[in-house]
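Form P-L/3: holo structure prediction, ligand copper (II) ion.
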Amino acid sequence: MKPLLSKWGRSIAVATSLSIAAFMSPTLMAGEEMEVGSVAVQANIAGLERVTQTLVAPPFLPKHDQVAKGGPKIVAMTMEIVEKEMEIAEDVFVQAMTFEGSNPGPMIVVHQDDYVELTLKNPATNTMVHNIDFHASTGALGGGGLTNIAPGQQVVLRFKATKAGVFVYHCAPGGSMIPYHVVSGMNGAIMVLPRDGLKDENGKLTTYDKAYYIGEQDWYVPYDAEEDEYKRYGSAAEAMGETFEVMKTLTPTHLTFNGKVGAITGENAMTAKVGESVLFIHSQANRDSRVHLIGGHGDLVWQGGSFNDTPATSLETWAVAGGEATAAMYTFLQPGLYAYVNHNLIEAILLGAAAHVSVEGEWNNDLMEQVEKPGPIK
Ligand code: CU
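OUTPUT (holo model):
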């Protein structure tokens, strides 16, 4: 078995020594199948109950128990990789790569010590090699080294969810294809709940009435100055060269919450009622962010996304490092339309990193009251 680092280093070296034109071959940078070597421990799954999880498009989560019933299970699910053109803002199109056709990909929910068994399918109609790297897993590049599949192939990966928290997953097929696939939309998150549920700052069980998954995505869309419009391409391979040039500026042209500017606003806004506790899971697979609920707070915030750590309390804004997911819980106390934003307000308002929560209920004058309406200065 070749040392991991040399394999990784070589693929990066190859990526930087070739011209962009060389990347037009969709399979050139594909990772190789990794050999795991001699096996010392076999999977401890004999007799475990097997359940199937039906994945749903974000911001929703699959049906799940907050406190696990019974012992560890094998939780099986299927994801299909979908390469497709997506409109990420009005009249702005990208050649997206997605898990299950959405950006972000669907949230998976299990409990600590459950086994996740994913069947990953890369339909023959796709053009690229893909795989999946689960930050919640252990070994083989997060599973990326064992899941490289060409169009027309499928693979089954099983891993034990040993760490409780929220974690990113993303495609990582090797070399420059890693950032290209990630910023083309190919990422999502998994929530691994403690078996006995979430705990507040005092270690007491706490539950949510609703949970939403917000996947923040940075996009790098080439611009045609002569035509004064964003460029549109026929395929991901065709878009690659010019997109790389924009990516290297590290300045996204668009930032979206769930695949399109304004996706979680208006009729698609998140909803809650006064008195309800809402868990917001926020992921960013590539770039730092900072989440703020305007007019509310993070009552409990699992910084870095780890559920076995004591949550921080009463935060105004919480950081999301590139490559992680975080979770924050808030009990709404006032009705109205709340903006849920990346609090770099340029990124929120001018680039698109904003969503809405529509909260029903009755106003509390003790918390806030307009004592006098706006009027002439006296
Ligand atoms: Cu991919």
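COMMENT: Confidence is low (pLDDT under 50) at residues 1-30.
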